[in-house]
Design goal:
Layout: H1 12-17, H2 19-31, H3 39-48, H4 50-61, E1 66-67, E2 73-74, E3 83-84, E4 88-90, H5 92-96, E5 104-110, E6 115-119, H6 120-136, E7 144-148, H7 153-164, E8 168-172, H8 178-188, E9 192-196, E10 198-201, E11 204-207, H9 209-218, E12 224-228, E13 243-245, H10 246-250, E14 262-263, E15 267-272, E16 282-286, H11 287-301, E17 309-312, H12 319-325, E18 333-338, H13 348-356, E19 360-364, H14 365-373, H15 378-381, E20 389-393, H16 399-409, E21 414-417, E22 419-421, E23 426-430, E24 444-445, E25 451-454, E26 466-470, E27 480-481, H17 488-494, E28 502-510, E29 516-521, H18 535-542, E30 548-558, E31 561-570, H19 578-591, E32 600-603, H20 617-624, H21 641-645
């Protein structure tokens, strides 16, 4: 399919009904700037005048706060060092709980067939009970509360209760191992831990309490461990230090919610770097910056409205959970799912989309690619009447997967590939209801985000790959790293490549359409013969071959230079032979370049991933070079590394 025409263009009706269309008029009228009549001049205004732009987002999205809103930005020429809305007070949970009516707030489904839902009024009641219990347990402003939880309504309730007190929430999904949890929660010393007794995945019940007992032994700061009887089995809490069931902790009495207001940059969430190269960094995000950025992205870029049912397939260990939950501030219905996205078959999430009337459907690029290879064609089997937007992130969305969505899922749908990260708890590039969708491209740079692509000299470029960067402060920058009082680790993480400019670690390109192409992580960039190659450039070609489910490419030090080694996971029952090797090489030579052709191609049964689902190229590279992987607990499938250690002999020639 050619890239001469867009895959999707908004209808006049959809464009005129978009929140972003109204916002363009709102900014035009508020500023008197006659140039602001479409997205491009609006974006230009947002990065030239952040001190004017962000207060307009605040007003348009109805953020609840008190205090003096001027100045909006102090020391805006410092990065890091700028700070926002210094005289404002707010509470994060109060903004997410601004509605208190009978509209559905949460709809929950899981593999076990559990079905639950809560209205906004019922959500208030549940949050009030847990907030009262936390306060009685001694939790106060600045204390940490941790969740080791599946994607449950209780997870959201516990977070809202925590942040209503201006305590700090941090969560991890139940597939984390004990060491991975201790590496994270042990650093921040939570006072309370929420967990479930078990969870479902792939048709199996997975127990949590044995791991929780070990965690309690290793993190003495935890005074109370609140256990959700998720599986329905009787709870066995004997001998569990501080153990109490969710129902006993919450009680049955209702308690009105009281919201503790704090400064704009008071911590609300602690997130974690993937940590495969050492102990994970604890990234602290502020309440105001997170809220304002999420509202901008949800209301303007995602076009979220109160009548929408929004879904994202995520665990509570991935920042997309935090992003999704902020949809409550819009009064939309948040749809939650816990379990495998391919159990009992590849239609599980499309079935949910029909049943729950999902209008905004979020998932990972890898899941879309996997369902395409499984032959799933929901356009032929499902109604998807409400569906108007599909969101994809986690890894680059291949051009062929764009084709799949418009051919086999739904033709009249906005496919928004989005990209950002845990580090900013938001996005640098997003969807846009006013702009066309071009094959293989993220539609636009986010409003207020001065995103530039830098070449090797640090010069902004267009039409060629480079380092994705942000050249000006934005509200959702981390407020600091935990246990980093001088800010040294923070500066080293983002500002060591180019002083004063955030370098994100992604290799990307700014296109002629003013969109973005993401080529993968720049720290995994291959350099055979001095030619820089993004790993996604290889995956894009190799994974078009029907035999190949997925692949991982790494650079191996070889004879004073570097060569590319490609590992492929094939369809069940297939074996890599010389014929398939030659087809892989030809695909890369013909459609990429001779530089992209691997020196070695090997078959593996599994590919290591982080808990959030991202391929860990660095871990593979360390193993084949005989170097230690410092923190295998950050991987969802650490045993996969044994497969790469086993083939080191084959890579010696």
């Amino acid at each position: 399919m050619s890239n001469d025409e867009p895959l999707w263009t908004p209808s006049a009706e959809r464009r005129d009904a978009a929140n972003l269309h109204r916002f363009v008029r709102f900014v035009h009228d508020a500023t008197g700037n006659d140039d602001i009549k479409s997205y491009a001049p609006l974006y230009d205004f947002s990065i030239r005048h952040p001190e004017k732009f962000w207060p307009l987002v605040w007003e348009f999205c109805g953020v609840r706060a008190t205090g003096d809103f001027a100045p909006a930005l102090v020391d805006g020429d410092k990065m890091p060092g700028a700070y926002w809305f210094p005289h404002v007070k707010l509470n994060f949970a109060q903004n997410l709980l601004r509605f208190k009516d009978d509209k559905l707030a949460l709809v929950f489904r899981n593999e076990w067939g559990h079905k639950r839902q809560y209205t906004y009024a019922e959500l208030h009641v549940q949050v009030g009970r847990i907030a009262h219990a936390l306060k009685a347990a001694g939790v106060a402003k600045g204390d940490r509360v941790a969740g080791y939880l599946p994607n449950l309504p209780e997870t959201i309730i516990a977070m809202l209760a925590t942040t209503s007190l201006s305590a700090i929430w941090s969560s991890a999904s139940p597939d984390f191992g004990v060491n991975g949890l201790v590496d994270r929660f042990g650093q921040i010393e939570p006072k309370v831990l929420f967990c479930a007794d078990a969870y479902a995945y792939g048709g199996k019940r997975h127990d949590c309490l044995a791991k929780v007992r070990e965690v309690l032994d290793k993190i003495p700061s935890i005074e109370h461990c609140v256990v959700i009887p998720y599986s329905g089995d009787p709870l066995a809490l004997a001998g569990m230090r501080g153990g109490v069931s969710w129902n006993d902790f919450a009680g049955t009495a209702d308690h009105p919610l009281e919201f503790t207001q704090t400064a704009f940059d008071h911590p609300v969430y602690i997130m974690y770097s993937s940590g495969t190269t050492g102990q994970p960094k604890c990234i602290v995000h502020g309440a105001g910056g997170t809220l304002l950025q999420h509202l901008k992205e949800l209301v303007l870029h995602t076009d979220l409205k109160r009548e929408d049912h929004i879904f994202y397939y995520t665990t509570c260990g991935w920042m997309m959970w935090n992003w999704l939950v902020s949809s409550l501030a819009v009064g939309a219905t948040v749809v939650l799912y816990d379990g495998s996205p391919t159990y009992p078959n590849g239609n599980a999430l499309w079935d949910l989309a029909d049943e729950a009337g999902i209008s905004i459907f979020g998932t990972s690029a890898k899941w879309l690619d996997a369902t395409a290879k499984m032959g799933v064609k929901p356009r032929e089997t499902h109604k998807l009447r409400a569906l108007n937007t599909i969101l994809s992130t986690g890894s680059p969305l291949m051009p062929e997967t764009f084709d799949y969505v418009y051919r086999d899922v739904k033709e009249r749908v906005l496919l928004a590939s989005i990209s950002g990260g845990t580090d900013i708890i938001s996005c640098f590039a997003l969807g846009n209801p006013l702009l066309p969708v071009w094959r293989g491209e993220l539609q636009c740079r986010g409003l207020g985000m001065k995103v530039e692509i830098l070449d090797e000299t640090g010069t902004p470029v267009r039409g060629k790959p480079g380092e994705l960067s942000c050249a000006a402060p934005f509200p959702s920058m981390p407020v600091y790293f935990w246990h980093d009082p001088e800010g040294t680790r923070y500066r080293d993480a983002y500002f060591s490549k180019v002083p004063g400019i955030w370098c994100h670690g992604d290799r990307a390109e700014l296109t002629a359409h003013d969109g973005i192409i993401i080529y993968g992580r720049s720290d995994a960039t291959l350099n055979p013969g001095g030619v820089r190659i993004g790993t996604a450039e290889i995956y894009r070609q190799v994974e078009q071959l029907p035999e190949i489910l997925e692949s991982v490419a790494v650079g191996q030090r070889w004879q004073g230079s570097e060569r590319i080694v490609l590992f492929v996971r094939l369809r069940e029952g297939l074996v890599l032979d010389d014929g398939l090797r030659e087809r892989i090489k030809k695909q890369l030579r013909d459609n990429a370049s001779p530089h992209h052709v691997p020196a070695k191609i090997l078959q593996v049964a599994d590919i290591p991933r982080t808990i959030s689902g991202k391929i860990s190229e660095l871990a593979v590279r360390h193993v084949i070079e005989g170097e230690p992987v410092k923190n295998t607990d950050a991987l969802a499938n650490p045993k996969a590394l044994d497969l790469y250690a086993a083939v080191r002999g084959e890579l010696a020639t």
